[in-house]
Amino acid sequence: MGISSELLLLGLLLLLNGLLVMAELAVVSASKSRLRELAEAGDRRARTALDLAESPGRFVPLVQAGVALCTVLASIVAGVSLAERLAAWLARVSWLAPYGSALAWVAIVVGLMLALLVFGELAPRHIALSYPERVARLLAGFLNGLVRIGSPLVTSLIALIDVLLKPFGLKPRTAAPVSDEEVNILVEQGLRAGVFQKAEKEMVAG
What we know:
The protein is mostly helical and 206 residues long. Helices cover 80% and strands 0% of the residues. It has helices spanning 3-29, 32-40, 44-53, 60-91, 100-130, 132-165, 180-193, 198-205. Helix 1 (3-29) packs parallel to helix 5 (100-130), helix 1 (3-29) crosses helix 6 and helix 5 (100-130) crosses helix 6 (132-165). The chain is elongated, with a radius of gyration of 23 Å. Mean pLDDT is 81; it is low at 199-204.
């Protein structure tokens, strides 16, 4: 495999890693009420995103497994192949030759860490948090397709987690109903943001 192919593969792995992180965070951060409003208006992508948001256990384990796999594969491509090429290039410089291999490994590790941090985590998270509903709708189909393909893996991971947690007496937590206090807090925030009017607040309180 040539260096251009290796760099392309590495770029695709970083892109996939970023898409998985962005899709997961956007779906769990998106406003369900806004997605529901769009879905009721006939937006199919919003409906798909809402279905995913209401059942995060369907995709979160799969996304985590995908991110881990991308990281491992990127490390193999960079560590095994690119490090050897860089070490060979550094060996041509006489005063760097004794340290070529060590310098190559340091450069690859630092470079890969920065690439994964910026393109695989920070940038996708920033985009997802800035435009959660838009990104959730955009990537809902992609994430839903992965869920359909990887559902056996998700089921296996959940079963394994349950087995590992059982000796500690830990059980999966079910979603708790929203309390009156939480409703009042949300209404107060909506009132300050201009989403609710004072009369609407009194209706909820009454």
